[in-house]
Amino acid sequence: MAANHNDNGTNGYITNSTAATPATTPCMAISLAGKVIAITGANRGIGLGIANSCLTNGAEHVFSIDIGDTGEDFLDVQKQFPGKLHAIKADVTKEDTIIQALDSIIEQVGSVNGMVVNAGRTKHKPALDFTTEEIDQLWSINLYGSFYCARAAARAFIKQGVKGSIVFTASMASYRPNKRVPSAPYGASKAGVRNMTHTLALEWAQYNIRVNSVSPGLVNTAMTYWVPQQPDWNQQLKYYGGMPRLAEVEELGGAYVYLLSDAASYTTSIDIPVNGVIGIC
């Protein structure tokens, strides 16, 4: 029996050269050379570690958008990269201040290519003990603030006509609760961030804006100093398995650098867990 063929003789396969040719030449190098990156909450902690990683991987400028003041840790990184690490004050819960901060960045250096939505708040206590004020504080920064920052960045990218990248800091608590210190409002806010990642990626793909997230596990910061001080910490690690330590902030940076880089030009709507396989959270 003769095989069935389509009228165009392609045997069912598309041979149109336009369809087979990628819209852009793929980038194979993971680098942030020439890019301007804004990071909320980067005066210290995880945000500063991300900033350090971005600069180490060639970013032209990194701007910390933070409501607080910079400290010695920030100045140390600033000294390593003269003229490249900057700080702008803004309140992520007020969208107009984020818009002003991004406008200021563009005015100073000409563009902004990536936005890391990192500013957040955490509080761990039993659900029955949370006050309305405490819940509002968590959600105003972690949820509303994240949405405002992402939307301000998207508008800036569209106005510039750049293929921008937005990376949220989510959390392993968005997947499952921390068994030792659960926090229903915090986990819910970070789960909301991950859902926001997927929804905004879908909406903004038409503008060549990519939206992804990174979910850290336990990270060695000022907020987690108490974790390894627990008397049964070593026993916990044996029980939960994985790498027997907390992550250093710089160990998260590679995931952000990849997602911000042109090497991730077809990567959107994903979350990258950075958890060392520790089951504690």
From TrEMBL:
Taxonomy, superkingdom: Eukaryota
Keywords, sorted A to Z: NADP, Oxidoreductase
KW NADP (keyword) present: yes
PROSITE patterns cross-referenced by the UniProt entry: ADH_SHORT (PS00061)
Gene3D superfamilies the UniProt entry points to: NAD(P)-binding Rossmann-like Domain
GO MF terms held by the record: oxidoreductase activity, acting on NAD(P)H, oxygen as acceptor; oxidoreductase activity, acting on the CH-OH group of donors, NAD or NADP as acceptor
Residues passing through the membrane, by range: none
PANTHER family the UniProt entry points to: BENZIL REDUCTASE, CHAIN DEHYDROGENASE, PUTATIVE (AFU_ORTHOLOGUE AFUA_4G08710)-RELATED
Protein family membership: Belongs to the short-chain dehydrogenases/reductases (SDR) family.
The protein's name: NAD(P)-binding protein
Organism: Viridothelium virens
